[in-house]
Specification:
Protein name: GNAT family N-acetyltransferase
Strand content: 35-45%
GO molecular function: acyltransferase activity
Helix content: 25-40%
Largest sheet: 12 strands, mixed
CATH class of the largest domain: Alpha Beta
Structural class: alpha+beta
CATH architecture of the largest domain: 3-Layer(aba) Sandwich
Strand order of the largest sheet: 1-2-3-4-5-12-6-11-10-9-8-7
Keywords: Acyltransferase, Transferase
Pfam families: Acetyltransf_10 (PF13673)
Low-confidence stretches: none
Number of domains: 2
Organism: Nonomuraea marmarensis
Distance between the termini: 31 Å
Length: about 260
């Protein structure tokens, strides 16, 4: 970096700057996820500046701390590992075709007694009740912290923030399954598919996926994306079974 020293300054509650010769040569930021966990990001061209920013940030923040990196970015991953971070989990990003001729879902129907309520048409009360049931079931097994960031609980405990993004499977007077679809431009994202544990192995998740992908296809959208924790074998099998392919992977790193 030359002869002059790099000065690290905390310029805001969640931001650090690395300055050399009156020029910002690196930035560090923190963000608090809905579940309260603190995630770090550092943007620095030189490894030495990255290390200095990391040292300054880690000295002033409570642990555990987290960050997410593209697994293909070996340089960035090694920099975080140099700071003491280790891999907590891997999340695959899938590209999911919507064409029923490709997915094989064109003839898939919900099981007897179950109907699919389209995205944005679910009643908020029953939907929130189902969300609570599913969250409790997940908490009792793998833990809700293993869910995608966009569906993590906020400090007030809420996990369902926008009912308009959900399609549901209804049976009698209750909802038994849901799928969350984020309307990202050109490539919507499937953020969550979940079914009550007492309704597993009936084909409800597959029927929800068939409904959502079919709807996207009719709107002229060729692919959707989905992020799946590699420990979730059922979800990986569901997506790979309809022709989804792995496009990339992210690592969530932690410093305890």
């Amino acid at each position: 970096m030359g002869e002059h020293a790099v000065v690290i300054t905390r310029v805001a509650e969640s931001q650090w700057h690395a300055v050399k010769d009156d020029r910002v040569v690196g930035r560090g930021d923190t963000s608090r996820r809905p579940d309260g966990r603190i995630f770090l990001s550092i943007d620095a061209w030189h490894g030495a500046v990255f290390d200095q920013l990391a040292d300054a940030m880690l000295a002033g923040l409570p642990k555990p701390l987290y960050t997410v990196v593209d697994e293909a970015d070996l340089d960035l991953t090694s920099r975080w590992e140099r700071a003491g971070f280790t891999t907590r989990r891997r999340e695959w990003e899938y590209l999911v075709p919507t064409d029923p001729r490709v997915t094989g879902l064109g003839s898939v129907l919900p099981p007897s007694g179950v109907t699919i309520v389209a995205v944005g048409e679910a009643e908020e009360g029953p939907l929130r009740k189902l969300d609570r049931v599913i969250r409790d079931e997940v908490e009792a097994t793998v833990g809700w912290q293993e869910m995608p960031a966009e569906v993590l609980a906020r400090p007030d405990g809420a996990t369902l923030l926008d009912p308009s993004k959900y399609a549901v499977a209804a049976q009698s007077d209750k909802y038994v399954g849901l799928v969350r679809v984020a309307p990202v431009t050109r490539q919507p994202r499937i953020g969550l598919i979940a079914v009550r544990s007492d309704q597993h192995r009936r084909g409800i998740a597959r029927a929800l996926l068939a409904h959502v992908l079919g709807s996207l296809h009719r709107c002229g959208i060729e692919t959707a994306s989905a992020e799946v924790n590699e420990s979730n074998g059922a979800a990986m099998a569901l997506f790979e079974g309809v022709g989804a392919r792995r496009a990339s992977s992210n690592l969530e790193l932690v410093l305890r």
